[in-house]
Amino acid sequence: MNINYEEHKQNIDTLGYTIIRNGIDIDLVDRVVDDFNYWQSLPENNFKKHNFNRVTNFHCYSKNTLDLVTNIHTNNILELIFGTKQSIYSSLFFREGTGQSYHRDTPHFYTNPIDQYYGIWYSLEDIDINAGPLKYYIGSHKLDVPDGYETVNKLFGPDNIILDNQQNLKCLLEYNNVIEQLCKKQKLLCVDTDNYQHNKVNKGDIIIWHPKLLHGGSNIINNTLTRYSMVTHNTPINTMTLNASHFFTNVPTKQYLENKCTFQYIKHNDINIVDHNTNPKVQTSYT
Predict the structure, then answer these.
(1) N or C: which end of the chain has fewer CB within 10 A?
(2) Within 13 Å of residue 251, how many CA atoms lie on the same side as its CB?
(3) Domain 1-142+190-230, architecture per CATH
(4) Mapping DSSP to helix (H, G, I), strand (E, B) and coil, where does residue 140 land?
(5) Is 155 helix (H, G, I), strand (E, B) or coil?
(6) What angle do CA 244, 282, 16 make, to 5 degrees?
């Protein structure tokens, strides 16, 4: 399969995302889905269908999924972007759509320097328009918006240094809302089924997006439909990755400034994967 990796890099630079058509072997896709269906059928895993459940780090369970997430096309594009070897930090498996609100990934995968992270979405079936496909604002990665420090100051004042979980949540909602309103003000094209815009994504396609792309899940019109898909969160190797509690502070945290990568890696298909030493887990809430 002949893929122009430089062209995909340019797409991400210009649009905030790129789509690799037929980037995954279909037989491998079927094996991954079979592995997941077996896993979710086990009562001890507590997975509930059509309950907005998603599963963290399913690649730790399934060799077929490891083969999926160490896709050569993804690897070549990310190494071109990062200028060094890339690694898989974590993953999410989706059986159905999420209906997740618009958000940026930057606060959740906070690196020093910032935005040394990209999201990868693997389509494991033809995505029905009524199943809640991905939504995003084209070009939103280029918007200059308040950073985490400014968001904290706006909501809680300059003296509030350590935030609790509720304050962090308020910061996330405010941060993403500011970006969404700016997207609307600048009339960026919104790919969202709510406004009848939709990029058809088929089984075996791959989407790579910039950490600043404002994206989410379209409304689910038919909640009996599935939207089998896998997302990985990728960074350059030896890159410390912190969460929103480090992004939303008035002063940079010690851990952020020291920037010491503490991760251990395993290798699969010669690609580095953070060893979280954990089993897949059901996750039921997110913003």
Answers:
(1) N
(2) 6
(3) Sandwich (2.60)
(4) helix
(5) helix
(6) 45
Please, what's the b/e burial string for 193-212 (b: 16 or more CB within 10 A of its CB; e: otherwise)?
beeeeeeebebbbbbbbbbb
| 234 token code pair | 């990728």
Residue type for position 129: I
Cα gap 172→166, rounded to integer Å: 10
Question: How many C-beta atoms surround the C-beta of residue 26 within 10 A?
Answer: 12
Structure tokens at 128: 């029905």
CB of 229 within 8 A of CB of 94? Answer: yes
| pTM of model > 0.90 | yes
Q: Which amino acid is at 257?
A: L
User: In which element (H, E) is residue 35 found?
Assistant: helix 26-41
The residue whose two tokens read 């509690």 is 245
- Domain extents for the chain? 1-142+190-230, 144-185
- Residue 259's Cβ-side half-sphere holds a number of Cα atoms within 13 Å equal to 10
Considering only CA atoms, which of 76, 79, 119, 90 is closest in space to residue 209? 119
The single-letter code of the amino acid at 40 is Q
Q: In the numeric block, which tokens belong to residue 81?
A: 């972007």
